[in-house]
């Protein structure tokens, strides 16, 4: 009898141990996979039912908050400014998950980080709210200016502080209203999401950092910096012939200056007037693919920038030019080789060169900040729900050393020249140091009648002080609309932002 009782006891202990092991496996080792399983909606329901922190701009405008509602869910996510910040905040949806800052900082907003859980363990007398609020770097006035200046045209505006990497304005159009997807009326949310997904303008796509475009002549800033950094050119040498077109090496095709204009001179004049012929020759016959590719990559091309809004695209500079040879060991002008014609087009931001507006804002930022590009970010801090404790603060972080401070200073002066006497004169403002480069980017490279994107990149700051703004604007081509120039179309948007900052 005792023997049977002992056997039963051993069996119960073994079964209990197996049960204990299984529970630990499910609750500890398999917890993350079960939580992230798309079929498991318990976490989403839980997060919807619990408190969730607010998202506010740098100057205190609430752009996302949770409000109590009746029904299945205790709370619903609301966006008081509607579409104005949609591509920054993203949406928070029961069925479709989260995007934007709502996605990147979901755990902080919902109070799910280890720090917040630890705090809740000792919060015996508090109200149990361990959610955190997110403060953005966005300036609400600059954001509104960007939205109003771009209007209903397809395009993007990015404004950075080159000293810190803070994003001050970030807008793409078409946009959407995140309230429609985040509503707890799930039938309405599904209908809204389906309509947005079916929209040929793709309003859910944040063009500012997820879409790439040919940057056109704005890329000439990188070509100029490459020539200066490698010693292949100075602001005054060589002197490029004043011509209307440049015959692409080993072809019978000519690359023309915009409008068929006679253009040439030294590097300073060629950048100010945006001479395609000068920069095509500079790329093909003075730099070569190795040097130009190296400089492009030092500015961040062929690598995705670190950014706290997810799913960014990689800007690209082509590395394959057939049998084209590097010119590192040759004295310019170089021997023409196969592939030089493609490199000539790449040097003016055409061929297969593609960039996001964010990337081109980083180019302007690097030139304005002594050659250093700081990692861009839209979140400045995470604070507890009472606003009494900062849980996390985003500090400036170096991402790339693009060029030397000396080369950055020279390139900066070349861009200032474009404002003083070149294609960006509409940006000139008394008491400010402003540099810029306009761009007219052909969708169908080589065609003088194709529709074009209008670009401008710029920096601005007070005379005698540091540069405070780095700007990139692209207004996308209108089908059948023909050529639109960066100076005439994108320039006024940049000018409005500069006026908003310094007036």
Give the domain tally: 2
Output the CATH topology of the largest domain.
Beta-lactamase
Order of strands, main sheet, comes to 3-2-1-6-14-15
**Helical amount among residues, as a percent range?**
25-40%
Write the CATH architecture name of the largest domain: 3-Layer(aba) Sandwich
SS summary, helix count? 18
Task: Profile the largest sheet.
Answer: 6 strands, mixed
Cα end-to-end separation: 96 Å
| Rounded Rg | 27 Å
Give the tally of β-strands. 19
CATH superfamily of the largest domain: DD-peptidase/beta-lactamase superfamily
Strand content: 15-25%
Give your account of this protein's structure.
- The chain is α+β, with helices and mostly antiparallel strands and 503 residues long.
- The protein folds into two domains: 53-120 and 175-205, Penicillin-binding protein 2a (Domain 2); 216-379 and 389-502, Beta-lactamase (3-Layer(aba) Sandwich).
- It has 18 helices and 19 strands.
- It has helices at residues 2-29, 31-36, 42-49, 86-89, 100-104, 106-110, 114-121, 140-150, 178-182, 186-198, 207-210, 220-229, 267-273, 276-298, 340-346, 357-368, 405-421, 486-502, and strands at residues 55-56, 62-68, 75-78, 92-93, 97-98, 132-136, 155-160, 167-173, 240-243, 245-247, 254-256, 263-265, 372-374, 379-384, 390-393, 398-401, 432-442, 452-462, 469-475.
- The strands form six sheets. Strands 3-2-1-6-14-15 form a six-stranded mixed beta sheet. A five-stranded antiparallel beta sheet has the order 8-7-19-18-17, sandwiched between helices. It has a two-stranded antiparallel ribbon with strand order 4-5.
- β7 (155-160) and β8 form a beta hairpin.
- Residues 324-329 have low confidence and may be disordered.
């Amino acid at each position: 009898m005792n023997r049977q009782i002992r056997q039963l006891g051993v069996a119960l202990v073994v079964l209990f141990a197996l049960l204990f092991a299984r529970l630990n496996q499910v609750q500890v080792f398999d917890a993350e996979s079960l939580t992230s399983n798309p079929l498991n909606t318990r976490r989403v329901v839980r997060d919807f039912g619990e408190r969730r922190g607010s998202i506010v701009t740098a100057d205190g405008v609430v752009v996302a908050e949770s409000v109590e509602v009746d029904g299945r869910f205790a709370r619903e996510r609301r966006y008081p400014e509607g579409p104005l910040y949609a591509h920054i905040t993203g949406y928070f949806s029961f069925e479709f998950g989260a995007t934007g800052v709502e996605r990147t900082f979901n755990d902080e907003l919902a109070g799910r980080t280890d720090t917040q859980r630890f705090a809740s363990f000792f919060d015996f007398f508090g109200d149990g709210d361990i959610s955190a609020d997110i403060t953005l770097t966005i300036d609400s006035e600059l954001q509104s200016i960007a939205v109003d200046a771009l209007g209903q045209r397809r395009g993007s505006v990015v404004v950075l502080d080159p000293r810190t990497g803070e994003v001050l304005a970030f807008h793409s159009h078409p946009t959407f209203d995140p309230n429609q997807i985040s509503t707890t009326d799930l039938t309405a949310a599904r209908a809204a999401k389906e309509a947005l997904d079916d929209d040929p303008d793709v309003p859910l796509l944040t063009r500012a950092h997820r879409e790439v475009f040919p940057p056109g002549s704005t890329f000439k800033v990188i070509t100029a910096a490459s020539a200066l950094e490698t010693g292949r050119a100075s602001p005054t040498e060589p002197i490029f012939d004043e011509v209307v077109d440049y015959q692409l090496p080993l072809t019978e095709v000519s690359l023309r200056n915009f409008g068929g204009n006679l253009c040439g001179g030294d590097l300073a004049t060629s950048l100010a007037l945006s001479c395609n012929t000068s920069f095509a020759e500079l790329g093909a016959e003075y730099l070569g693919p190795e040097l130009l590719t190296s400089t492009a990559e030092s500015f961040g091309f062929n690598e995705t920038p670190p950014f706290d809004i997810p799913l960014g695209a990689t800007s690209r500079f082509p590395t394959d030019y057939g049998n084209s040879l590097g010119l590192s060991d040759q004295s310019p002008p170089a021997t023409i080789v196969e592939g030089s014609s493609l490199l000539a087009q790449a040097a003016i931001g055409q061929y297969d060169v593609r960039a996001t507006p964010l990337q081109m804002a980083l180019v302007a930022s690097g030139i304005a900040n002594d050659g250093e590009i700081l990692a861009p970010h839209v979140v400045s801090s995470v604070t507890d729900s009472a606003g009494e404790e900062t849980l996390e603060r985003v500090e400036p972080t170096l991402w790339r050393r693009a060029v030397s401070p000396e080369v950055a200073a020279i390139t900066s002066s070349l861009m200032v020249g474009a404002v003083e006497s070149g294609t960006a004169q509409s940006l000139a403002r008394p008491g400010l140091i402003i540099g810029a480069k306009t761009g007219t980017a052909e969708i169908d490279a080589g065609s003088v009648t194709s529709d074009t994107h209008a670009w401008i990149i710029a920096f601005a700051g007070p005379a005698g002080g540091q540069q405070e703004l780095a700007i990139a604007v692209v207004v996308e081509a209108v089908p059948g609309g023909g050529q639109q120039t960066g100076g005439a179309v994108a320039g006024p948007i940049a000018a409005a932002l500069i006026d908003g900052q310094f007036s």
